[in-house]
Structure formats: structure tokens, C-alpha cells
Amino acid sequence: MTRIAVLGPPGAGKSTLTARLGTLTGLPAHDLDDLYWRPGWRRPAPDAWERIQQDLAAGPQWLIAGNYQQTAAIRISRADVVVILDPGPVTCLRRLLVRTLRIHLGATELLPAAMRASGRSRAHHGLLRIARIAWRYRQDCLPRTRCLARRHEVRVIVLRKHTAPGSVLQMIDRELQRRRAPAQQGHAQESEQP
């Protein structure tokens, strides 16, 4: 069994890394943005959103990309490893602006799945709110994610700079080996890339 939750601020590269890891490993890869947004940029009801994630997390193997802090415990509690992408607020803000511009110029593949077919873009919608989340991630979300991982005794890998998917897989494998080691049972551990 391998269940990997990939979290981080908007613009960190969660979807990209998860898709690449899915290709390398053959694990089913899920992007929560694709599952969350409905046609017309409608949101699911909160209970339906929780059920979607509970169903995904109940699977024996998965990669799930997405922050969605209100429901992060669903994924973290079932994960074998949590990968946190944290390239820093300036990098995330730059990536958000570039992505928004690319969508406006026609790169519909960057939209959530429900919006790709229609090509309807509201990429700018909520940009300031999303930018604030990215800017404050280290103060607001990262401590909560670490606390959840400790509570559920889940291994954590924090990546602060771009890392090739193959190298990430090696880090994940090391963390899974440590998790299986009898001396480490019952203790969440964290590895951090400089």
C-alpha cells in the first residue's frame, strides 16, 4: 500500500508533481481541483466534498494533490507519507500570475477539468484571495498540516525547492522504509529539504 498526500500553497506545483509521480509509479493520481470545481465554477456541498475525499482516501493506493485545509485531515489520516511543497511565497505568487496569464491566453489545460471543455476562464476570479493563501501559507497552513501529520503519525517530506520526481520517489521510499522500521513505530518524523 502506498498513499501519498501532496499539499502546499497555491502555485507550489502540487498538481504537476502528482501527475508526474503518477506516471512514474502507476499509482492513481487525483487532483482535488479537478474534483472540487463544477461547471460554471460551482462548488460542491461541504458534505459531498467530504464524501468524495473519504472515498478517495479509502483506496489502498493513491496520490492526492490539493491543499483544501478544511478537509486535509481526511487525506492525512490515511496517508503513508505527506509531501509538502513549500517553495516560498514569492515563487508561488510568480507562478500564480504566470498561470493566470497563460489561461487568459488560451492554455485551457491549466483549468480544472470541468472548465476545460467549455474553455470558460475565470482564472482571475479570486486571485487576490488565492494570492493571500500563498503568501500566508507558512504562518497559517503549514503548522496545521504538520500538527495533523504528528497526530496521525504520518511521515512528512518538506520540499523547499524544485526536485525531480525521481528524487522525490527516492525520498518517499526512504520515509516508507523508516515508517516500517520497528524503532520508528508510533513517532511521526519529518524530513526537510534545504
Low-confidence spans: pLDDT under 50, at least 5 residues? none
Rg, rounded, reads 16 Å
What is the string of SSEs from the N terminus onward? EHEHHEHEHHHHEHE
Spatially, the strands of the biggest sheet line up as 2-3-1-4-5-6
What structural class do helix, strand and pairing data support?
alpha/beta
What is the helical fraction, as a range of percent? 40-55%
Number of strands: 6
Helix segment tally: 9
The best one-word shape is globular
The quaternary state of the protein chains shown equals: single chain
Q: Overall mean pLDDT score?
A: 88
Portion of residues in beta strands equals 5-15%
Distance between the termini: 29 Å
Biggest beta sheet summary: 6 strands, parallel
Descriptive labels:
alpha/beta; 6-stranded parallel sheet; 194 residues; single chain; 14% strand; 9 helices
Describe the protein in words:
The protein has 194 residues and is α/β, with parallel strands linked by helices. The chain is built from nine helices and six strands, in the order βαβααβαβααααβαβ. Strands 2-3-1-4-5-6 form a six-stranded parallel sheet, sandwiched between helices. α9 links the parallel β5 and β6. α1 (14-25) crosses α9 and α5 (89-104) packs antiparallel against α7. The chain is globular, with a radius of gyration of 16 Å. The mean pLDDT is 88.
